[in-house]
Amino acid sequence: MDNANLRGGSARPLAGGLVLALLTVAAWWLWLGWDTRYDVDPATGARSGPYEVWQVAGCVLTLLALAVAGGLLLRPWIVPLAMTPAFTVPWSLSAAREDGSGLWVVGAVLVALGVLAGSSLFGLGAGLLRRAATTRRS
How many CA atoms lie within 13 A of 121 on its CB side? Predict the structure, then answer.
C-alpha cells in the first residue's frame, strides 16, 4: 500500500488513525503502564516515581517516532487527534487509581497538552517534509 492510498478515501485515514492510536496505547503500556511502584527515601521519607527517567525518555522518543510516521503516512491533522486521547486516557486511568488527592487531574491536563503539542508539531512537520519532497519530485 503506498502513501497516496493511506491518505486517500475516508476509511483509510480512519483505519490509519486507529492503528496510530493503538500503537500509542502500546507505547504507554510498554514504557510506563506496567510501573506503578513508588519509591520512598528511607532517610527523608520523600516519595518519588513511579517512573524512572529512562522510561519517560524512551516513551517520549517512541511517541515522537509515531508522530513522524503518522505525519508521513497519514493526513497530519489525524496524528494529534489519534495520539492525544490514546495516551492521555490510559495514563489518567492509571494515575487516578494511584492518587487519592485528585491531583492526577492536573497531571492529565499537562500530559494531554504535551502529547497534543508534540504530536501536532512532529506530525505536521513530517507532513510538510513529505509535501516538500513530493513537490520537488514533480
Answer: 8
